[in-house]
Amino acid sequence: MSKAEFIANVAKTGDMSNAEAKRVVELVFGEIEAGLKRSKKQGKFTIGTFGTFTVSKRAARTGRNPRTGEQIEIKASKSLRFRPSSTLKQAAGC
Question: With a threshold of 0.70, does the pTM exceed it?
Fold first, then answer.
């Protein structure tokens, strides 16, 4: 589902205009982003019955170029992960 389709669904379900729905969706996404920034020390941001966002760290490692087989150094990085709540999993039939 694209962001535009998501906004259209929110507008239809919430009985509001697309402009209002877009503001609501942007506000929710903005709060998730702000929550992640505020919780940098914990590296975790939980939204009740929705799920938990965590920042995981990947160590630097040696990899291989698939074309040449040459060894390359891969830098350390961070990755954002999402773990759905049990309520969300049940809704999805998982």
Answer: no
Domains in the chain: how many in total? 2
Of 34, 80, 33, the closest CA to residue 54 belongs to: 80
**Both 33 and 78 in a single domain?**
no
SS3 helix, strand, coil % of the chain, rounded to 5? Answer: 45, 30, 30
Q: Cα–chain-centroid distance for residue 46?
A: 12
- pLDDT tens digits for the chain (94 residues)? 999 999 999 999 999 999 999 999 999 999 888 888 887 777 788 888 899 998 888 999 999 999 999 999 999 998 889 999 999 999 988 8
Which residue range is the domain that position 3 belongs to? 1-38
Q: Same structural domain for residues 1 and 29?
A: yes
Indicate whether 92 and 66 sit together in one domain: yes
